[in-house]
Queue: 2 jobs
Job 1
Amino acid sequence: MEVGKIKIKNMKNEDFKDNEYLEKYVEELRANGVNIVVAKLNDLINWGRSNSVWPLTFGTSCCAIEFMSLGAARYDFARFGWEVTRNSPRQADVIFCCGTIVHKMAPVLKRLYDQMAEPKYVMAFGACTISGGPFKKSYHTVMGIDKIIPVDIYIPGCPPRPDAMIYGMMQLARKIKIQEFFKLPKEPDIVEMNENQIIEEKGGENE
Amino acid sequence: MNNLDSIFSQLPFAEVVNKDNIVAVTVPKDKIYETLNLLKNNNFDYLRDIVGMDYTNSLGVIYNLSSTQKPEYLLLVKTSIEDRENPYFDSVIDLWDSAMLYEREVHDFFGITFKNNPDMRRLFLRQDWKGYPLRKDYDDNPNINPVPLENEDLDDMEQLPQIEVNQDKSFEEQHSVFQKEEYVVNFGPQHPATHGVLHLRVSLDGEIIKKIDPNFGYIHRGIEKMSECYTYPQILHLTDRLDYLSGAINRHAVCLAVEKGLELEVPQRAHHIRTIIDELTRVASHLLGWGCMCMDMGAITAFVYGMRDREKIMDIFEETCGGRLMANYSVIGGVMADIHPNFQKKVKEFIPYMRKMLKEHHILFTGNPIARGRMDGIGHLSREQAISIGATGPVGRASGWSNDTRKIQPYAAYDKVNFTEMLRKDGMTFDRYVIRLDEIEESLKIIEQLVDNIPEGDFTAKTKAVIKLPEGEYFQRVENARGEFCVYIDSRGDKYPYRVKFRSPSLTLVNVLKHITPGTKVADLIMLGGSLDYVIPCIDR
């Protein structure tokens, strides 16, 4: 499948400007060919997945206000099936990382990401989450959240307009659409530990 | 002020400098408590801020006081200590409730400890942070404080170091905020109802709140330190990101402070435009604050309505300023660009629209029996408490404390307009709720008076390419949507400031939460937080 053939309902294909990344991704995915049955099944599942992405409400600063605008009546991302914002990471498919991440917040973001179920995506909103943005000279800002967690979509702006956010969402929908569902990373195996192992894991603090 | 002379006659050791309503008093370090105690008893009952200073060879603090009876006077009480290894001052937490968080902030940034303050944890930075970032000799090498990449437990706040200074050396005593048997629930940092990344540890008895311990710093970006290596026009861009809901007003404060220093004549046209933009920002902020508070009580419709009306203002901003949320509009000497040809027309359309919608908001929510049932009779904040905590803005005015900077010390075009300072008496949650809607009405009145009378002329004064502020201290306070926002600039005649301090009105509002929540239900905590309408990035800076 070529990038030109990925159809999503909400936006015309020729309106997308940034295709290089997806083209490369498709090439990688399709290198060995795909079984026709699996491919059809993939298409069906991805159709469902790309039209009901549930974001985690995660806003730290200014971009969160634009995210609220996105959720309100005028921009209304419910039109695209993204409306069910979840407050628990366990129920969310994508983190909308709205706002600067600093040293103190970094472990929290990492934890939220770890708690999400596979397949999961990350969207970096605004200059701060991409590279530190206006706080490049700061001692306490993380210079880009990709230092902590992998990022799928970068949306520049300070803060990005809700329209730009919608464009980013549509790009993510395209990405979801071309993925091979059955080859995506699975949940990590849960290893049951007995009490002694737990104590070892914690560094023997109970001794 | 005759009163001041009589006070200072009791303090023979104080050096007093009086300049433009700002009185600077320098006292020796061991007399600081005595001085402040005397001033407190002589009507200087509002501690605005404590500014930590690094004078390179010594460390100091500046207490910024005002009297609620004569709020136009500012008093800066300064003291310093030469010992950089173990600096300490006497704590003033028994005089003002607001001092607790201010002292912790100074401790966090400068390593200055306050004797008798039982809570000397870091306020913003991680407890294991190495170094004191606002000291001039701070090493910002990222290898000293690497980014923690691992998911970790939030239990790093358990121990409280209390500092007791002995004759020759200091020792630390550890004790905890909460007792072992208390039931403590973490609320935040990632929680949709905390209005940002605020972390509250709440001790519960059933569903009754016993005690609250707020933790900040999850969005601390170090704006004050960054300002020290930026030029003045560059600093302006950071101020918008402090309290992003009243960004234009914060930026106005820095512009005014620098203009005062440069003795720059700002065109009247710029003053008028800035005032209109400020008031539009205030309306937008109050609408969002109203919507969020209603959403905290379960009324999502109100939130959607608030956002809908706010979009009208965003459209006006977008045409004139180029940005939606971040107006980035004021510059030193005026505004960045002239207003859009549609500006006046659109603003004039907006005013009757907003009045109509305000009525609708009142019908939808203010008179709603369910909403009144939630709001009535809880969250009482008395006037004395509000002053002691330093809760300015709509929260203070809902408790009957008249503290509107637009009236006390009119700046820009506020002396040319008629408006009433909204005051209520009871200090309940409902008063804090309804005062915001009343203030929207007042803001509309201000805009109405100004929008037709924008004088012709330049929209900005000519400034030099490199702005060097003459040596001295500059201080400007403005009324932003949450209260009194102050900027303090210490300049050494360079193009970079020596020290910049922003007084965040939201910090004291979180402190209010500590005082009004004990005894209420945990479900009300969210609503009380909504009624205070704090913005966390403004606290953390």
Note: Chain A touches chain B through 41 residues (CB under 8 Å).
Job 2
Amino acid sequence: MSPLNEEQAKEYWRRNLSLMIRCLVVWFVVSYGFGIILVDVLNQIQIGGYKLGFWFAQQGSIYVFVALIFYYAKKMGDLDREFGVEEEE
Amino acid sequence: MDLQTLTYIVVGFTFALYIGIAIWARAGSTKDFYVAGGGINPIQNGMATAADWMSAASFISMAGLIALSYGGYGGSVFLMGWTGGYVILAMLLAPYLRKYGKFTVPEFIGDRFYSNSARAVAVICLIICSVTYVIGQMKGVGVAFSRFLEVDYDTGLYVGMTIVFFYAVLGGMKGITYTQIAQYCVLILAYTIPAIFISLQLTGNPLPQLGLGSTLVGTDVYLLDKLDMVVTDLGFKEYTTNVRLSGINMFAYTLSLMIGTAGLPHVIIRFFTVPKVRDARSSAGWALVFIAILYTTAPAVAGMARLNLMQTLEPSPGQYLAIDERPQWFKNWEKTGLLAYEDKNGDGRIQYSADKETNEMVKIDNDIMVLANPEIAKLPNWVIALVAAGGLAAALSTAAGLLLAISSAISHDLLKGMLTPNISEKAELNASRIAMAFAIAGAGYLGLNPPGFAAGTVALAFGLAASSIFPALMMGIFSKGITKEGAIAGMIGGIGVTLFYVFQHKGIMFIPGTAWVQPGGENWFLGIEPNAFGCVGAIVNFVVAFAVSKVTAAPPERVQELVEHIRVPVGAGEATGH
């Protein structure tokens, strides 16, 4: 059983979901948003030889994905410690 | 030393390495066999996951798919789709399934949906996805051997099967993990070294990721602008803006590949090998780092190889390549049938054009973009030998991971879980080895006698995983209310709709002539091509599961506790089968 009481378990899960949703919004915006839906608009901007929309679709979104996972892992680690549900060494 | 001898030496060395690892990493228990003992460091697991994940298709075909078939920007669906899935995996599935701490994906589905029927349906979905995927890998092994070592396809396949047999049967997940780490190193070197040289030659920038956005050596013209210009001159769509069919189709395609990635069992079980829940989170990040090294290089390889090809075929504007002046690499690859020309107007030159009537470059295989790269860039022979070893590493590592997912579903879910629950640990280990041997033989048979649908299989596997396994796992973790009837109906509905859509447009089991809807785009639902339909199947799965759960009896109390239990990390034991 969970070491948290019902109230704490609810709060822990709510904070987890809210972090997750924030991360998924970024995930959606950089790939589907910048890479597909808004690609023509962003392509008006050029950075070096890259049109910006094209860059997000073929490079940028992937870099953001990597950063997102580590950010999520770090923040969840903090949340686990705050609620005392982290794993022992 | 000639290229052939050198290739044999490099490939032989990598194979000796894999066999050495197989003998060193033998499995002593079912836990070793299914989850490599559960003690794999998250960075090592990330590397193994990257090799597990990146198949012959990623290594050999993807750059060409982007550059040629999908004409540039349209190929972004593969780049985003096959990486973005790891974000979903890291946040929605991996940590919770690791916390649950069992050996297989169907085992979780069976427990969460308190039903052996649900487990059996999950096993069937898993086997359909994994078998369709493994056929592609076996073909990749045979093709890589026959192209690089000039042995025939069948012989190549037998050699590949023998190597996989060695480390997968002896070592199970443990052997596979350590060989995958070695295979990752081989394949990433083999992919990036030619890319760095080509980037240097074209742009003077050693990083292909930056080279693609740089100016061409000795000019102030950007590489991508030049590429857009030369392709549009010949009547092709502009490289950097060429949409694949429609925005909606690209959206659906990317989404299907992402959730398919997150739902593929051979990827998910890799996260059962790390010691802790927090390792499962970070390990997904490491996996994506190692994958991103190849996936951010691939679009550069695509753009640069396409430009090289265009400039070979049309050395100066309007002046096409004379047949007598074909470079050596061109002639080499003609022999394999990957390149072919036909001088239709008899002027002794090869007109290359987007217009099918006048185009004389009648065959440019996608694979040529990676395979011929080292020769086009005039790289030394050892680099070409390394590319051969890399292609084989990519195919073998993915095949082994898939075979483990299949054999553990048979020995652990079917035998231990359903048919003979009282089987001893030792007997189960033997059974898992026998299941693995049969899985290899079966995959080999399908590689030797590829069914008619083999060409479309890898894309299909994603659609099937996206529409069956991913939604079931996600609902199992995030909803306490989904009932066993809901989950079973959802999985069957999701995979059913996806298969129905694919068969209706491409033929039953891809047999030509059995499609009952006219091929081509006009009958597509919202203009979505069959390969991109997995996400619609997933939506069907979710809707059916929720609807059926509303009208069936709520799950028992222990399921609520199970869901509570997996939502917090503390108290995760090592993965176990009990």
Note: Chain A has a mean pLDDT of 94.
